[in-house]
Design a protein that fits this description.
- The protein is of the alpha/beta class and 395 residues long.
- The protein has a 7-stranded mixed beta sheet, sandwiched between helices. A 4-stranded antiparallel beta sheet has the order 11-12-15-14. A two-stranded parallel sheet has the order 1-13.
- Helix 2 runs antiparallel to helix 9, helix 3 packs parallel to helix 9 and helix 10 packs parallel to helix 12.
- The radius of gyration is 21 Å and the shape is globular.
């Protein structure tokens, strides 16, 4: 008789963001005359840039001609896109071989798939508060998960603890949900820790384009020693608005050898076994992101989101509420006023000001009493939400 994966029963009954959507829809149904101001789920509000749109149209036209038609894609990505991504890393002083870059359908998919590289006896270390996928993918696999907590006392940036031994280490910088960014000395400590213990770091760099201060690296490979211990997972979702188009990339250096096996070779074999590659049309659109024209255009959009973040943080500053993030990150992590619980503050903002955010409790125990705002909303709506927030929180 078939036995189902009983680890599904270990997950929370409701996924964080689906609960936010459910509560929002319920409010809309009961208050059809009220406009909702969405600063919650981190979907983008600006369309794909012109360079990408032109490339997508050109790729569609390619599919209409026998001479330019493309069928199955190389499982690890077309060379033109892998080369473009490797070229992008040169901006950070990082040299990558083309076959160290793997094209994917998005960072979330890769976060789930990458753990195929590791035996179930390996433990995973998750820094809380944490993006739910780190915990849930390992829970479904049946892996033991260790937690290292962070809070205001360490600026939500935990340091390695020699009392906690882990085989897989998750780091997200700029961080989702807290908006903090790990500086070079801190990342060096984590790289040294991973190398000394034979661990592998999963470095989530989905929001690197928001970094503007030089003290913060865009890539983990800017840190000496990272090539021998770190896998980097990136996305074009927030970088270039590909949330509905879906494309990401993963870097697996050839230097990572564990148990006599190359993780680069293993991941290549994994892709050959488990995917037929990403659509040619989408890969052509993605390649346009890395052209000079594409880079200029997506950075124009990023400036809009940065201004959204500035409007939110200005409002918080005026009412004296503690927060992190918002400058080198699209997320603002707020301490709930008057010792409110996270979901209590969610209901308060929704009912009193029609503002949607994300309760911190959904990111782990350390998130209780905190709240995440996203800067990806419509600029005019964000401006109005910031004003409403400022007036409401004066109370």
């Amino acid at each position: 008789m078939l036995k189902p994966n009983t680890h599904y029963a270990e997950l929370k009954t409701s996924y964080l963001f689906s609960t936010v959507i459910e509560k929002t829809e319920e409010y809309k149904a009961n208050h059809p005359d009220k406009k909702i101001y969405r600063l919650g789920v981190g979907d983008v509000s600006l369309p794909l840039c012109d360079a990408v749109i032109k490339a997508l149209h050109g790729a569609v036209d390619d599919q209409a001609s026998k001479d330019t038609f493309e069928g199955y894609m190389p499982e690890c990505g077309k060379p033109f896109l892998r080369e473009a991504i490797a070229g992008y890393y040169k901006n950070f002083g990082v040299g990558l071989d083309t076959d160290e870059v793997f094209v994917s359908s998005g960072a979330c998919d890769e976060l789930a798939d990458i753990i195929d590289l590791f035996d179930l006896s390996n433990t995973a270390l998750v820094m809380e508060p944490a993006y739910p996928a780190y915990v849930e993918t390992n829970t479904l696999a049946g892996r033991e998960i260790l937690h290292i907590k962070s809070d205001e006392s360490n600026g939500f940036i935990p340091l390695p603890d020699e009392n906690i031994k882990a085989d897989i280490i998750y780091i997200c910088s700029p961080n989702n949900p807290t908006g903090v960014v790990f500086d070079r000395p801190t990342l060096k400590k984590w790289v040294d820790f991973a190398n000394s213990h034979g661990s592998v770091m999963i470095f989530d760099a989905a929001y690197e384009i928001f970094i503007e201060d030089e003290k913060f690296p865009h890539s983990i490979y800017e840190i000496e020693g990272a090539r021998s211990c770190a896998i980097e997972i990136c996305s074009l979702s927030k970088t270039a608005g590909f949330t509905g188009t879906r494309l990401g990339y993963t870097v697996v250096p050839k230097d990572i050898i564990r148990g006599g096996m190359s993780l680069n070779v293993m991941w290549t074999r994994n892709r050959l076994s488990k995917t037929n590659g990403v659509s040619y049309i989408i890969q052509k659109g993605a390649a346009a992101v890395f052209t000079p024209e594409g880079q200029a255009q997506i950075k124009d959009n990023i400036r809009v989101y940065k201004n959204n973040a500035r409007m939110i943080t200005d409002a918080l500053d005026k009412v004296g509420i503690w927060y992190t993030g918002g400058k080198n990150s699209p997320y603002i992590w707020v301490k709930c006023p008057h010792n409110m619980k996270s979901w209590e503050f969610f209901d308060y903002l929704l009912n009193r000001a029609q503002i949607i955010g994300t309760p911190g409790a959904g990111f782990g125990e350390c998130g209780e009493g905190y709240f995440r705002f996203s800067a990806f909303g419509d600029p005019e709506d964000t401006k109005e939400a910031a004003e409403r927030m400022k007036e409401l929180l004066k109370e």
